[in-house]
Amino acid sequence: MAAIKALVFDFGNVLCTWTPQKDTAVHPKKLKQIMSSDIWHDYERGRYLSADECYRAVEKRFGVKASDLDSAMTSARSSLQPAGITLDYLTDLLKRHEALRIYGLTNTPRPEEGSVQSIAQQWPIFDRIYTSGSLGMRKPDICSYESVLREIGLPAEAVLFVDDFQENILAAQSIGIQTILFQNHEQMYREIENHFGNPVSRGKEFLASNAKSLDSISDNGITIHDNFAQLLIVDLTGNEDLVQLERWDRTWNYFIGTPLLTTDTFPNDLDTTSIALSTLPINESVVHSVLDEMLTFRSEDGILMTYFDRTRPRVDHVVCVNALHLFCKNGREHEVMPTLDWVLKVVRTHAYLAGSRYYSSPDMFLYFLTRLSGSIRDRSRRQELLSLLKQHVSERIGIAGDTVALATRLIACGMLNLKNPRDLASLLSTQHADGSWPTGWIYKYGSSGQQIGNPGLSTALAIKAIECSRPETSNEENQSRNEVSKSSHEGSMNEIGLRWGSLIWSYLKKLGDILPVFR
């Protein structure tokens, strides 16, 4: 992704707000027809010498009095207010990135340009504001974007465009401009920030600043202290200083301290134990003694079970994968072939797509399976597994998912040399301002189905996913994204305006729930 050197903002809904009046002189449905017409589009392109000339053309075709249309415009104009918090944010952004340029691009007819001059002058952050009336072209006309690019002297990929209408975003994207579809101000701030700085460095800073307090959380907001997520964070980062573990001599328990949201007593399990013994520096004799014990907990089919507890005869294919990894890593895969062969059957038949008793996401299964593939010594089974993984991971590319689903999928893609820019873009766009990623669901209680996530683990997975997809981010601070080159301010503020067509649309939408068509 190219370094951003300029931001180009739409105005209506993005940088300006308004309070709609209760009464309007023009019925919303009728105004929808007017704003969708060639008359209004030509008005925005500056092809009418005056507002009155346009209004008279509207009156002739639509039967709406010019005076009533003028009244509707006046009502919206009088309620117009700048989005102060957002403009303050952009002021701060310029302080942090002094070389950055900020422009406006608005569908505004010439007669309306001067009406908001005083408001715009309160925020001297724009290098220039381009109006459709002055350009002689409007969004989403491709020529309007190309004209602005020529004026500012930047390639499309160096420009980030923010607009609240998909039609305008699509047109900009089609010529290579980077874009943000505005949904709300917080979302816009987050996505802008994600275009500056190194996402990996920001994520690592979050983990470091929250070390020893990276606890899990249930889907109903209860904090859970568990070894499992902590161990996976260590596995991903190689840094035990980030976590707080309750260490066990041999087999491990999922929980740290008292179990929550489950039975009062909770047995040690093969899943947590396998992650611990394959991640931490454990004495080899201890590892093999635990493997011996695991072999005593197998189902009637000879498949490894989940708990070191014969009263809980549970089999989970994801747990099996993690236990298999420990056996294979220690040269004992020949002792668990029934389990390995069953897991291969689960993959071949796509049986994993519905999730498992303890894992909802099929991507978690494929991630752990990719992790396992590197430790299998049986050549034929390893080759079959790798072939299956490439097929099945490829099938998952582009499917919607939370942070954990996207990140585990991307890590698997990286290990299998599969390109996945689509999911990478989705993952990058969701990074929070503090450097973390939204909590994704990792594990669930088998009895209740209650989901468990961990913001630290979600962030660690996202970091690893980006490193696998963009190796350069782990080796450098990607300073080119911060050191954007600044040319001198060109032009003046004499073309300030607002995209009045879309302002009126949104103004009346609040009154009549209109869905704009062309803005």
Automatic annotation (TrEMBL):
Cross-referenced Gene3D superfamilies: HAD superfamily/HAD-like, Putative phosphatase, domain 2
**GO molecular function annotations of the record:** phosphatase activity
Record InterPro entries = HAD-like_sf (IPR036412), HAD-SF_hydro_IA (IPR006439), HAD_2 (IPR041492), HAD_sf (IPR023214), PGP-like_dom2 (IPR023198)
Q: Supply the SUPFAM superfamilies for this chain.
A: HAD-like
Q: Which NCBIfam families match?
A: HAD-SF-IA-v3 (TIGR01509)
> What is the designated name of this protein?
HAD-like protein
**Naturally occurring in which organism (per UniProt):** Penicillium steckii
